[in-house]
User: Fold this.
Amino acid sequence: MHIPDGFLDTKTWVVLDIISAGFLGGSIVKVKNYLDERKVPLMGVMAAFIFAAQMLNFPVGGGTSGHFMGGVLASILLGPWGGCLVMSSVLIVQCFLFQDGGLTVLGANIFNMGVLGSIVGYYIYLALSKIIKGRKGILTGAFIAAWCSIMLASGACALELALSGKVSLIVVLPAMLIVHAFIGAGEAVITVSALSFLLKIRADLLEQEVM
Assistant:
């Protein structure tokens, strides 16, 4: 889902760079207001975990593969703004050190996986966890939100490619969503597995609600 350079036209990536820069600036301000000394080290741990986890691909079928994104998991533990910063830092390192995702389209990748994947994904989780109470609500909300985060990010990627004139939306949107529906299932399973483990040993890490 990392978009390389040359796949988006100038107007599209410039707009997304500006939007993502605004979200990053807002995230920095908001994180200062709610993250305490106990949670700050967790940001580094989560960034390292997501970076390593994204290196491991799992087969989807038809010769395609997917990897863990981690936006919802990071946001549940760090709040949506902390999750956005963690995802953005991972994407920036991947871009500059490993050429995984282009430099000009870095804002688009941050928007898709950081803003939609973390911030929007978090509020889907929050809404569901309030409807379904307790541990079941946490895990059900996380499962659905993690799957939705992948679908939102892949759908946005397809829309951006179509707006740039690279391919018809009628062609790229179904293709992206069908493949990523399976990748999203893997994302949901990994997210729920991690949260289930944390609920047993450090449930306090999930007790924070951030608006």
Strands lie at 57-61, 64-67. The mean pLDDT is 89. Residues 10-206 form a domain with the Arp2/3 complex 21 kDa subunit ARPC3 fold (CATH 1.10.1760.20). DSSP finds six helices and two strands in the chain.
